[in-house]
Records
---
Amino acid sequence: MSAANKQQPVPIAERVQIFLTREGGIYLIVWLFVTSGALLRNINMLVLMAAIMIAPLLIGWRLNLAMLRKLRANRRVQKIAFAQEPFDVNWELHNDRAKLATWQLVIHDQGRRIFDDELKSRHQVVQLLFRLIRPQETRYQSYRANISQRGEYRFGPAKLTTRFPFGLMKATLEVETQDIVYVAPKLGALSASWDRRLLSYAAGDNSIKRKRALVDDEFFALRTWRSGDSIKQIHWRSTAKFGVPMVKQFDTRTDKDVVLILDLYEELTTHLAESGQDQSAIELLLSFGATLFSRLENHVSGLITVAICGSDNCVHSDQNYSNIAFEVFRDLALAREGRHPLTVNTVLDIGRRASEGTPIYVFSTRPFTDALLEQLEPEELIRYRSLQNMVRWIEYSSDEFQEMFNLVPPDHRELNAVGKLST
Amino acid sequence: MNRNRRSLEILFLSLVVVSAFLLGMGQGNIALSVIAISLAVAAWIFVDWLKLFRIPRWVANVVSIGILIWTMSYFFEAQSGAQLIAVANLLVYLQSLILFQEKTPRQYWQLIILNVLQVVVAAVFSLDLEGGLVFLIYMVLAAFFLFFLSNEDVEHSLQETNDAGTLKQGVFPFFIWREESRPSGMKFEYPHPPFPHQFFRISIGHLVPAILACFTFAMILLVLIPRAPDSWVASRVMQASSTGVSRSIQLDSTGVINYDFSQVMRVKFSNIVTGEPIEIAGNPYFRGMALPQLIVRNNVTIFEAPHDRVFYNDYESIPKISYRESRLPAPFVNADYILEPTNDPLVFCTMPLFLPLEDSISLEVCRPLSAVVRPRPFDFIEYAPYRYTLVTRINSNNQMSSAFPFVSPDRSTTHFKMEPEDGEHRSLTYLPAERYPDLIKIAQDMAQNVPSRNPLEFGKRIESYFVNSPSFKYTLDFTTITRNQALDPIEDFVANHRTGHCQMYAAAMVLMLRSQGIPARIVVGFCGGDWMGDSYSVLNKYAHAWVEAYVPPEFCTEEMFRNGEAGRGGAWVRFDPTPPQGIFANGNRGGNSLQLARSLWQDYVMGMEDRSGDSMVDVPAGRLANALNLGQITESAQAAVVRVQTNPLLQAVVISASILVLVVLTIVALRKNQTKSEREKKHRAGPIRRLAATLLSIISSDLGRWVLADSESKLTVPFYEKFVGLLKRHGYNLDSSTTHREFANQVVDKLMKYDIAPPTQDIVLRLTEDFQAVRFGKKTLDRAAERRLWEELKILESALQDVSNRERTALPAAH
């Protein structure tokens, strides 16, 4: 996954705002009462009391202002996360002052989901407490976030506040920096058979291997010697230990290309939306896509082509997984169902990027029907016929798909609240 | 239980103890203090430490309303000090009630406010040096309490914010209701950092200088702020356990009389022309009242005032000095008195007594008490020192006059002497002779050597007899004296032990004078004071008793007439038979360190003398008040109050209006404080339920939420329910196999058949879309949108009615 931000702590705004807390307001009212009684009735003890009472307000004011000056703060959070998998949001605070420590500093951080439409989500607020930051000291704190739904989330802006020592005045400092986190769909589990099928053996018997530079295979595991294994691969120490010839198995990266297409077509959504079923289908497909794509990192060295066809069509291709990982997961996070059906022609166009013989896997919300072919022009139909065996169209509700992927569908009540964050 | 929380509890307990102590010191009554401390300790043990029980909030709210009504009933019945006591009661009981609840930082804030207000009440009552030190200790404890409370508040706020969205539950009587949380999109797990090593030690180490800075700031402010001339002095005259004036003296002391060092008054003698302070040569005598009446009770001689109270018809005015006389630089002097707050209307003076020409204070002489008093209600408690200025006469040696003219009560031109047949003469010469044989014998022996039975000479001889005799001793400790119980104490004193205090000496002299037919009376007051450089500080320990004897004019000397000490009616002559060791010569300059501390406290903290002679507060405040016609407004307001108080109907109207305003304000405040979800909940609830929830929220917010709890569980959309019901009545049923939009299309198709206008058809589609948005999209409708929807439903209803009518009137289909 992409690394978290590694910026140096940035100086935060010098403009510290000071407020009277609610308790300070009540304290002030009591002070006014005491003072007015002292002045109107000339009660000397109350004058003394009022004089003593005003001092904590003044001291709190100056102290709170001073404690927030020359502080540097930075939030570090990863750009890509997965739904229902916790991740850490880290805060780093540095006190640049030479003498004065900062006490009981609270960071008010917030996160909210960003939507395209009018629906707005409320902020989810979290508070972190730094009890003591001595002069010239750096302190770290983190909190763990667990986001249940995919999407685009913004962290920030944050506020630093302190009310030390009496809680009557509160100094506040805004930290304007904001971080975007794309929460990709929840990861599931591929069945073992499909794992092998997709990644190892069924990646296209007829696909042309791409030439690549000689790179040492990575050690993967130990197994018993089989006919055909090189003697050089025998691990003698393990052989002595186990009593049978043992060889090292190396991670064999396939040079073969992979093409994955997610068809997020929305049909009969009116009815299905009320029952929540179509949302399940979309989310299921996206989770499958995220799971499958994440597995490609260590198993495929050929060209990886991923297409997400929904409200927008996004296609990413690269031989280097890490070059497209961020975009793919981001698009998986933001993908929306579309009302325009994915055509076979589009499938073929996408598949053209890969080498000949590469299977084109289409995972869709709908079954493949002949109606889809009716849209093709004659030449396209011919082309399709030639590649017919390469196109593997799998509907989400088919037994085949159910076998290959395991994910507990999200609760449809939560899905009804798509677009809303509740606190 | 973390350390911070426990420290908070212990600190608050300490604050309760200290504030209760202050309240007890101020009121002079420990009952309320004992109650406050007992309840606080019990609450800490059973609620905070053992956690055996706690009072639910709604119960506490109801009880607090009861406490408020009960204490305020006393408040409106009482006057001045009793009102403050009622307020103190209210504060203590409310504080105790909160102590028995579950305490969050909010409760602790309520507690500290109630506690501080108790200290305010205590400060208004009285606080001397010891009280002042306790007060300072309280402020230090309060500062530490604020610190720990701030820590607790941060923790609590952290937990509340970070736990938002989790399952909440509440309990009302025995029902448990649950407020299911919505599944949230984001959940955070936040750390709870422990207190770093030595956090408290370091932070408290920083706190101590902060507190010292607060006190320094306060003292600087105290010194610099303008002082008003009528500043209130905290202490008041407490009834002395021993020394001090009283309206009755009983001469059978058997224990030890202790000195009381509390200040009674400050007196400044100054030149009437230049204002320069004058130190009196010898001890100044500050006259209180005369105790002329002699009674015997339980075989004990008692001298007392003729009655205990001041009656308004017994007043005489005090003569003002004449204009001509006032121009003389001497012997008249101004005597400026600052009397400590006291319940007693009695004021002190030096004789002879005059009022300044320009003065308009309402002092008069109460003749039966032979005392100067200020007339006011008996139950009035004085909180301010009383300032007044009198004029008296001294001689060229700065000695006070030892006599003042006798003025006949009827002031007639012919009867201006005290004649033997006068009632006053009889009263002042009465004594039961059989009780004092030896005393009378001594007096007779002395009288034989007095030429012409001159009462002046006789009085001096008696005075000399006691003062110069080595056998007579002064003491306040009667535990070592063996008394003959068969004898009258005065007889025993004169004849036997000859050891006593000023009252006994004065009583003995009065009896001796009376035995020879000379009218005489005991006078109580103060003799002497601590010279502070420009004035006298008269403490309680300077209380003294002496004798005044009537000398007819024929026995008064020329000098007495010349000095104004005698008039044509004769003179009252002062005699002091107490041996000198019983009087502090020239006052006690400075005293011990505690005395000095008390003086400093009184003068520089509580006394608040206006050194500038002008007030920066009173003068501008007075000008502002005049500019705003506050005086007139105040008078009008007072008149209005009186009118309300005397008219029951007006009272009822005012009370009803107040209650109504209070209820409305409470409802508005509660609505403002509601969160959006609570408003939504209320919105879904019916009007009766909403009203019930609002009213119950006054007592407890939990109650209000409990009432509304059900409305949250039904995720229905009221207007769509009505829509479906309306259609059902007209034969359009929504079944489970049909979606809402399909149903809407079916209805529209049917409406089209009957040529219902398109806008009405659109209503159906619009209602359905709004329902979809609210039900699935979680949109909320504002008031305008809601109103529109309900109006559209009405339009639809009439359209459907029209369709139904057409269907009924349509011809049946042909078979």
---
Amino acid sequence: MKAAAQALAALLPVLATVLMVLYGFSATTARGEGARRFFLVLLLALHGALLACTWNLGGVFPLAHPAWILSGVAGALLLLYAITELTTRSAAGGAVAAGLALLLQTASAMVWPAVLPEVARQSSPFFAPHAIGLVFGVAALLLSGAYGLLWLLLWRSLRHGRFGLVFRMVPDLPGLTRMNRRAALFGFIATGIGLNTGIWWAHDAGRQFSYLNPEVLTMVVVWVLFGLLAFAGRLRFMSERRAAWSSALAAALALLALLFAVLPGGIPHGAE
Amino acid sequence: MAGASEIMLVGVSHAGTALAQRERCAVAATALSARCHELRAHTGARECCVISTCNRTEILLAGAPAGAPVLLREKMFDGIEGVHEYTGMEALFHLYRVSAGLESQVLGETQILAQLREAAASARTAGTLGEALAAALEGADKAGRRVRAETAIGEGTLSVARAAIQLALKVTGELSGRQAMVIGCGATGRLAARCLEEAGARKILCVNRTRSSAEELASEMCGTAHTLEELPGLLARADVVVVAVEAPEPVLRAAHFEHFPRRQHPLVLLDISVPRGVDPALREQRDLFLADMDDLETIVRGHRRGRRKAAEDAALILVAEVGKFEQRQALAVLKPRVVALVRRFEEVRAETLSTEAGRGDSARFSEMLTQRLLDEALQALRGGVREEGPGEDLLARYKSHIGES
């Protein structure tokens, strides 16, 4: 089981690379689309298998180690992207989502524990929703950031009269805005659940809790930013361009928060 | 009449000259006739026709002295870069390619046919269209229509207005529920309004210098009519603005956007006017997307690549049509000689018959014989001319003209 988990952790970045190449360069034919779908589903299935392996190995909810958190965010990001592609029938951002998954999965493989860590059993019922909420929240926020980045790239291409690859492959600006808002709304809700259950979990465990903790503070800022983004359509001052900038910025902050959470010694409430 | 050899063409187009320079030598539709007259007098040519569209300004001359191109350059294209000059068969090839839409920004677009007809009509009104140019333009028109009917070049093609609206859709998404505006209610403005309507825009704001033209278009499009004075208030309501005016100065300037309200969606300004109808400085304005004719050039490049095969098919048609033009011209040159020859044969026949008169069957035989000889001679003469049709040589010259080996 341990060997299987390690093999999967090593295989996932390779498959994520293939997926990224397929989204970035394969033709927009039925065959190309079929290949992309196949690899996306395969990656999701393997992520599920890895989750089951680590759960089975540790006997605890498998998000209590940096490697598992990173892998979980990668899997959640691909799942959210797959749902977005299915509902909007647009493969926009596929290459970016696969690229982010590759980045996260590679980082996860790099810190994958050779020896199973000693993980304290989380008896609090708040831990699982807290971890799942934040993993999906961060994944959604990263996806939202990817859409924001694509919006800015397309806008820049249009303004500078460059009608090349970005112009041909990226859908229209309102389409990107819609997908961005959906991802931001989902991220806002999931992060909200994650943050609030985290507070209850801390109280439940009888531990000190501070908003000044860097990862908590960053995540709260990101949560507020994505709240604004999710309801940007009703906010007069939040133009589509500002929303795109904000989501890119907030995604960068979400990555930073994730980094705080997985840095050595920076697992304040994951494995204490 | 001396065929293609006496035709020459001097001009500029989107292929070699930037918009800022093209707009300096553009000729308004209302001034075409006067310009034809003026240029014919200036160059000493027998015939003159001015073609001026968004993408090109070209002067066709026939029977012009050798120094005419230099005079034309000085008069029309002084200081302009990328001026092209063709004579004889090269000029004819170019004209036919223009008519077929092979030289257009949007490959195979159909507007150019109407624009060439308009140019011919203006030259005719000015009295500067003679037999040579009329035949060349008529041949080009026929070739253009054949190319569109017999090749895939016209399938799904875009006019400049349609390409501009496709670009707008990239910024606005669907046009339904968006407020569109057309400034300039001439032929291009009308086409733009139709494209906007096809793309889903409802209740188009039609703006024109004169209210009557705006009202006419508004009634066709179920829109509302406005004059240029109302622009500042209208701009705040619009999501997409197509500017298709014929004016020496931009009709939309930075001043129009000084107190522009903050908006969620970027405003799209599509300037399909030559000279430009929107101040280029507006490109720097935030939350505003401005595209002009030069931008469209880049968009249609991919479209053009996809139509390379159709362009190859079109080449064969164009070569055949140029060959036919040459045949017609050759026949026209031979016509007086043929008439004289027929007359002479008739004389000879009558003479022979008179000498053979009263010889019974022999006379009948002579009549038949001479008639047959006459027919044979004429047949051979006509056939000989036809055989000089388009061949390998003409195709090679065409390929050389377009820069293919």
